[in-house]
Amino acid sequence: MLTTGLVVITVALAGAALLSLAVGARDIPFGTVMHALVNPSDSRDDLIITQSRIPRTLVGLLAGAAFGLAGTLIQGVTRNPLADPGILGVNAGAGLFVVIAISIFSVTTLTGYVWFGFIGAAITSVLVYTIGSVGRGGATPIKLALAGAAVTAALTSFTTAVLLNDVDTFDQFRFWQVGSLANRGSDVVVQSLPFLAVGAVLAFASARALNALALGDDVATSFGQNVLVARLVAGLAIVLLCGTATSMAGPIVFIGLMIPHVARAITGPDHRWMLPYSMLLAPLLLLLADVIGRVVARPGEVQVGIVTAIIGAPVFVILARRRRLAEL
Amino acid sequence: MSIVATTRRRSASRARRVSSVLFVAVVAMFALTLSYGEFQISLPDVVRSLLGLPTPAGVDYIMHSLRLPRASVAALAGLAFGLAGAIFQQLLRNPLASPDVIGVAQGATTAAVLAVMVGGFSGVAVSAIALTGGLVTAIAIYLLSWRNGVGAYRLILVGIGVGTALTSVTSFILTRSDVKVAAEALIWLTGSVNGRTWSQIVPLFVALIVLLPLTLILGRALSGMQLGDDLARAFGVRVETCRLALLLTGVCLAGMATAAAGPIAFVAFMSGPIAVRLVGGGRPVLLQAGLVGALLVLVADFAGSHLLGSRVYPVGVVTGVIGAPYLLWLLATSNRTGRGG
Description:
Largest sheet of chain A: none
Membrane topology (chain B): Multi-pass membrane protein
Helix content of chain A: over 70%
Radius of gyration of chain B: 20 Å
CATH topology of chain B: ABC transporter involved in vitamin B12 uptake, BtuC
Protein name (chain B): Iron complex transport system permease protein
Shape of chain A: globular
Order of helices and strands of chain B: HHHHHHHHHHHHH
Strand content of chain B: under 5%
Structural class of chain A: mainly alpha
Shape of chain B: globular
GO molecular function, one term (chain B): transmembrane transporter activity
Order of helices and strands of chain A: HHHHHHHHHHHHHH
Largest interface: A-B, 56 and 57 residues
Strand content of chain A: under 5%
CATH class of chain A: Mainly Alpha
CATH topology of chain A: ABC transporter involved in vitamin B12 uptake, BtuC
Radius of gyration of chain A: 20 Å
CATH superfamily of chain B: ABC transporter involved in vitamin B12 uptake, BtuC
Number of helices of chain A: 14
Number of domains of chain A: 1
CATH class of chain B: Mainly Alpha
Distance between the termini of chain A: 24 Å
Subcellular location (chain B): Cell membrane
Oligomer: heterodimer
Number of strands of chain A: 0
Helix content of chain B: over 70%
Structural class of chain B: mainly alpha
Distance between the termini of chain B: 34 Å
Organism (chain B): Paractinoplanes atraurantiacus
């Protein structure tokens, strides 16, 4: 049953990828798309597809999968249904370090950004989680959300302080900041693959441990689970996945929040199923959001980060309104 | 009973003392902002110029077109942010729940950026639009978190979600214009009191004349509400009405201040807790928080203009940099005592 579901979603994902190749400022018939995939020529349509739409679609697939996995991990580790890299300030941390990279170290390539994005994401996640879990009741949803919002506000001030004196950096940064899949070269895809692969392996390796953690630290320990190691492995995966995806596509909010809930609704709370479902559902949503963004404002486009924010905010509100925000 | 009365009187007199000291400090800082700069103006000349008496050449121009607008907007916006922050924090009984954390400021900001960059408005129109944006956002957050009454907890979470979405919209608008225009908008987004005109200051001033007394009157209900909704009801406080009125007042204050000076980071957030610490005794402090806010903005603006080397930083950068470590400390300590939620 659940395996069938995975097949259905994979087919849907392939359909979304095809849409992402065909739809845009210039619509290209599916026949031509297929032709360009199999046997590219030098025609204008074929060039658009190979030079622009294929990298864009690949970035969407990879970044989406990474956000989906990271969202499931982050909600599992914190046992917090509202955890999301955007809400928890991880994106703001990555953003600040990307600005530092562009402005101070004159980094212009993705490989350069990635490392800074990682460091920023790692420092911020540890910081927010530590602050949010001090005191009574551990890391409750509201403490983490407030810590994340507050840390975001603080980091944004520093980011702005750098940007104010550096118009060129600001010009690069403002387009990165909205979250977009456009104009990423295929080198971006190649460079980020190893990071994402390691992150995904770690993610699937921690599935069992997350199931144990869901029962509470005491029960998990009594099952022979080393709680600290489990958190560290999952944390490393989150940083790798979030850091790379954010560097690739910019800080895209709410995807990591919504997808795990959809996956959980389908599969139940078993992380061994939730993780593959999230990994396929998130790129599906991201690619569809990207296609919507290209269609609604022709000939221009609305960046995918804006579309996901507009879809995601209502979902967040619905989750926050639940009578009892049960810890996972 | 007499012990209770004495303690109460003592703490009230301490609150009054704190207000007086803060007021004097604000006036002193205001005077310093007027007199200090590339072109020094002596204090007697400052006073003479304010009173319209004859002064040396150039003084009147610098005073009336540059420094007086700057000092006024700093003091007034700081006062409004401080009051708004304290209202939200004390109403929601959470030191982290200030308008800049829970989405109200983001609503005003997004509306103002839309008005300036897309609509091409300026002056009073921007104030009105920012205020409307803040109000609409606040009402939306309030309604979205309504469920047999509004729980503070839900209100904060919904506000954070709405604020995050609005921030995306603001970033989006920033990508839609020429980089020079966007860079100017960025300065405003940081919060700046530089180059303000009277058309931006007068609306804020008028709003404060109305809202300050209103806040202080409504604030009396706060001490009852601090005991919790049920006890407050038992004491005869009309909880929902009072809460809504206070929230609206707070939103108007934050919206007007944002329209005039931009969303100056952390002023709303820091002022309340500082005032509580100064006054002590766990009583609601609104006026004191407003004065702390005014002082913070004046000092931060002075530091940004004169103390950080040759570069001039907008006030919001300075308050952001002061605010960040303070915030971390507050988060850590308030969580330890269990007040963080």
